[in-house]
Amino acid sequence: MILNRLFRSQELPERRLYAAIVAAARHADLYRDMGVADTVEGRFEMVALHLFLVLNRLKDAGVDDLRQSLTDEFFDDMDGSLRELGVSDVLVGKKVRKLAESYYGRVMAYDKALADPQLLEEVVGRNIFPDGTAAGRSAALSRYVVKAVQVLATVPVDKILQSELKFK
After folding, report:
1. What secondary structure letter does DSSP report for 165?
2. Residue 48 CA to its chain's centroid (Å)
3. pLDDT mean over 110-123
């Protein structure tokens, strides 16, 4: 009985969709061709960006519960990742709160910047290439974001709910 619940919980739609978001965020092109650092920080940025893109697409789709569940999955994943990295139980909550602040700040910045390509490039540069090496790379990644918004807009919501995502 317990095993059935464990396996069934793995099949939740938000888990499948979150796994698809993470898979897209880990695509080699982002790191190899666009220069995103293949580090814990770089991976966080890509997951946060792709999660934002999907949540943005689902914004007016009448699936607010799913959007919240996806966000919860993200923070559960961050919690688990921190624990795997050896962060003590005492510090995990504080670090997750800091990640939440970072994430929500990015969401607000990306949301505002989608309407302004120059601002989007600045936001991408500041968040994803904080080491000051954004020149050229932030432009390419900004174009990727704009294209992803356009492509996701063509994917029917029911397909997204089945974890069928397209970003380019």
Report:
1. -
2. 3
3. 95
